[in-house]
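User: Batch of two.

Assistant: Item 1 of 2:
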Amino acid sequence: MLVKAIKTRPLLPPNDNLLSVIKESVLSVAERSIIVVTSKVVSIWEGRCVKISDKINKDELVKQEADLYLDKIMTQEHPVMLTIKNNILIPTAGIDESNANGYYVLWPKKPFLSAKKIYEFIKKEYKLKKFGIIISDSHTTPLRTGIIGIGIAYYGFNPLRDYRGKKDIFGRKLKMSQTNIVDSLAAAAVYEMGEGSEQTPISIIEDVGDISFGTSQDECSLRISIDEDIYSLLLKSGKWKKGGTKK
């Protein structure tokens, strides 16, 4: 598998043209590639930016953007608000201030629709038939230091590799194992793209084995309800409050 980060000009909040940046920065894309784009530049493309000022209360902004939230807690380094957004456990509803030039950058409003729009542009511009799109973000893992990549949306391929019913090397039939292709590839891409001043918000992954391409997809393929999750006891222990935009 080959993962290549693409250098681009800076996309400037509060609004910039991601598609023109892709066109000027990506010279070619091979068939069966996966194109990973950071959620931040997708949000800037969509104008999902809020100017940081004394009039904007970040905590209230987080509550508006979150589906569910916990009141702010104090970690060892700084206070943080834990949230669930789009069925993903994420701090501060994904709102970020790094590389944002004085803005809060929110997550894309409808990330799966955004992924589809990027897919349609790539298909037309580069004359491709089989490829995929992932919109990525950085994510922390409980009880682990550092960040990894996660896919908040995808389009153009089956997001799971299913081992259920198959046998392991000793002949034992697998009952639950499925590989999350989206987050696995997002992790590799985010590592290559970096987190600082690299200026590489796009990554192209080639030679990915055993992927089924196609546009007939279910956005809920990777989702598990809190009741079904193996960490449900921990997730249910918090006093979650319902978020959402104020009326």
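Item 2 of 2:
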Amino acid sequence: MPDYLDVAIRAARVAGRIHKKYFNSGLKVKTKSSSFDLLTVADTEAEEAAVSLIKGSFARHNFLCEEYRYRKTDSEYTWIIDPLDGTNNFASGMPIFCASVALVHKGRILVGAVYDLTRDELFYARRGKGAYLNGRRIRVNSAATLKQSLLITGFYYSRSTEMIQTLRIIRKFFLKHILGLRRLGAAALDLCYVACGRAAGFWEFELSPWDFAAGKLIIEEAGGRVSGARGEKVPLTKKYFIVASNRKVHHKMLEVINSKR
């Protein structure tokens, strides 16, 4: 079988080289559909570089990426790529961003790689073979209660219903006396931080497949769990409410998220 993981890693790293080229360089910033959703030349160049590298090995594969749309082929394989997750951080000079690359076959994620240039941290996983950070096997942490749990969340670009609901859930978690809460601004890294034990859980109202595909596999291979808001399986074809954890606090997180009070 072709070494899909090697290609995923190389694609994530080549995107990282584009990040290095432009980070803190005074690059021009545009907006997408929302004035809060930024776009830089680093996003588009990183995607072009990653897709070009993958096509060099798998020319007939499909691509589901954040910045461009690609002509569909008859291949059963799809690469899901976020060339620069955390663009708002990147554009503001905050060193919390990454590239995320995953390969899906018939609805199953085969490999995933997430590369953080600023810390030179490469998270990766192959289905059934465990999850790794810079060559070292990683596992989720052992927090068994919310009081022991440092959690991470994300705010969707919407400033209406999703924001209000997120703030309500944050309040409910603090009333459960969680250890603490972080909002880092790069969902792929948030997921990897759960995978390597830096946090016990993460949730966000609406993430696209390129935000969570690689991180989902990395968490699962590290012993954790990823689901929808009610514990259901997460589709890889549309935006979705994502809940991720070390598995031990997953049902507790779902209880809080779905509670009426």
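Residues 146-258 form a domain with the D-Maltodextrin-Binding Protein; domain 2 fold (CATH 3.40.190.80).
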